[in-house]
Every structure is written in C-alpha cells, then in structure tokens.
Amino acid sequence: xxxxxxxxxxxxxxxxxxxxxxxxxxxxxxxxxxxxxxxxxxxxxxxxxxxxxxxxxxxxxxxxxxxxxxxxxxxxxxxxxxxxxxxxxxxxxxxxxxxxxxxxxxxxxxxxxxxxxxxxxxxxxxxxxxxxxxxxxxxxxxxxxxxxxxxxxxxxxxxxxxxxxxxxxxxxxxxxxxxxxxxxxxxxxxxxxxxxx
Length: 197
Description:
mainly alpha
C-alpha cells in the first residue's frame, strides 16, 4: 500500500492534516466559549449606560472564566469569575468594603495559582476593574477599565486566546470610541448650558 493516494503526495496529505489541526484548534470548545465572551464583551463596551455595561460585562467575564479554565489558565479563570461576580454586584452596590473584599480575594487566589510573573496580569487587571466598577462612574470608570483592558490583552495573547485577544482589542477600541462620544456629548451640553452639576 502506497503512502501516496490518488491525486496527491505525502506533502499534500501533511498540509491537509495541518489545516485540519488548525481548524480543530480554532473551533475547540475553549475557543468557542471565548467567541461567546467576545460577543458579550463587545456588547458591554458599546453601552453608554453604566448599568447595562456592568450587566453585559458580568456575562462576558463569566464566559471568560470558563474559557480560561478550558485553556488551563487558572489565574485568568479565577480572576474572571471574581470579575463576573463583581460586575453583577456593582449593578446595585458601590461600597468600598466590597472593593476591599473582592480585591483581597483576587490577590489571595492569585497568590495561590499564579506561577509566572505574567500570571499576575489578569489579577492586576481584575483588581483595577473591581475598583473601577464599584467606585467610579462615567468617563473615569471607562478610562480605568481601558488600563485593565491592556493588561487582559497582553494576558490573552500570551494564553493563546483567539476570542479573548480579539475581544480585548475590540473592547479597547470600542471603549475609546464610547469615551470620545461621551466627551463630545459633555462638551455639547456645556456649550448649551444644560450640563448636569
């Protein structure tokens, strides 16, 4: 029996196998969950109202937790799970004691699961996000979330997260766009004299 089948050589079959392996990796369960997180995250950061941003962000980070668990990144998975809880809590509460509790949990879990310096990127990003959504609002909140986005983007590139890398890149752009739109609206309100105090 020949290794060369009809119409091809061993090299052709090797290329087909490589293409199949790539497609399998792109559509693995871990990456598919990352794509769901991508859609939820895009939706979140296109919101101009803080409440809706926090709700969609909570859903997105819950999907992220499963995504990073499946990718074998426990620091990002645990930080995402805490971030999801934080986002849902932040819809109703903005207490400083919640900030302290969630950041303390994030750092403690991070200390238990982080194995490399880069493992701290999602932990720090989640801590910035915690302070932002529980204590800040409007443009200031979005600016701090942008800093967290840069940390998560770096983590996602290093983790091999396709959807996560796309998500954080898009979130960065969408967040910058939303901040610019909010600044234009604020300037228009100030110019018309109808800006809130």
